[in-house]
Amino acid sequence: MIFALKSTSLVTEASRDDIPVLADIHARCFQRGWSASEFQTLMADRLVQCLVLRRSTFRATDQVAGFVLARAVANEAEILTIGVHPDYRRSGCGRQLMEGLMRKLYGDRIAKLFLEVDASNDPALSLYRDLGFEKVGERKGYYTKADDTPSLALIMQVNLIGAPVKRAKR
């Protein structure tokens, strides 16, 4: 007898109980991770939305694989940060988070979504371009690499209203 072992994923709003996990994932993703206190402050802001991707497998239930925080003001939103746990990278988690956020913002009638990304982060750039983001500006020296050299940030934007959201080729 053969049994299929399939993981399931669900993008949901984060809860206060998720804050320690969010801080842990952020510390694994960035040179200077945000503390649980910083996440708590951001999540208390009514303009900030935090979504998490929960994965369930035969070994674990509702593991937080990643998250995205965005702030919406008027009809525009900006991604404050996004992170995927290293164990779940290159498995579509970032795409699921971004598509979930974009659907939510579209439902909230947000017209444009902005983000900043390190110009040397090729996997992220590939994802964002595939989702329809286009470069609209630069910030020199915005990021600092592990060797303390400055790195360029690209400012990218996607129109959520008035333009179709690109779907991934599967």
For this structure, what is the CATH class? Alpha Beta
Report mean pLDDT, rounded to a whole number.
Answer: 89
First and last CA, distance: 30 Å
By oligomeric state, this entry counts as single chain
Number of strands: 7
The portion of residues forming beta strands comes to 35-45%
Strand order of the largest sheet: 1-2-3-4-5-7-6
| Helical segment count | 4
Q: What is the C-alpha radius of gyration, as a whole number of Å?
A: 16 Å
Overall shape? globular
The CATH topology is: Aminopeptidase
Q: Label the CATH architecture.
A: 3-Layer(aba) Sandwich
Tell me the CATH superfamily. Gcn5-related N-acetyltransferase (GNAT)
Name the helicity range: 25-40%
Structural class by SSE content:
alpha+beta
Low-confidence stretches: none
Order of helices and strands: EHHEEEHEHEE
Total individual domains: 1
Which key features would you list for this structure?
4 helices; Aminopeptidase; 170 residues; 26% helix; alpha+beta
Describe the fold and architecture.
With 170 residues, the chain is α+β, with helices and mostly antiparallel strands. The chain has a single domain (8-159), classed as Gcn5-related N-acetyltransferase (GNAT) (Aminopeptidase). 26% of the residues lie in helices and 37% in strands. It has helices at residues 19-29, 36-44, 93-107, 122-130, and strands at residues 8-13, 48-56, 63-73, 76-84, 112-118, 134-144, 150-159. The chain has a 7-stranded mixed beta sheet, sandwiched between helices. Helix 1 (19-29) packs across helix 2. The two termini are 30 Å apart. The model has no long low-confidence stretch (mean pLDDT 89).
